[in-house]
Write a structure and sequence with these properties.
- The protein is mainly α.
- Helices cover 51% and strands 0% of the residues.
- It is built from two helices and no strands.
- The protein is elongated, with a radius of gyration of 13 Å.
Amino acid sequence: MLKDEFYRDQTFDNVNHKKRAVKKAINLYNEVGLHLSLDYKTPNMVYKLSA
């Protein structure tokens, strides 16, 4: 999933720019994107329901 969040020709100005982009992609995956395998829930929703 993470590799799909970036274009192959995307470049980063510095390490901090890259880190922000990766954190944003991880946040999208865990908190925004609904997953078919999780019954159209986010991973964070499933985690909170199991706690």
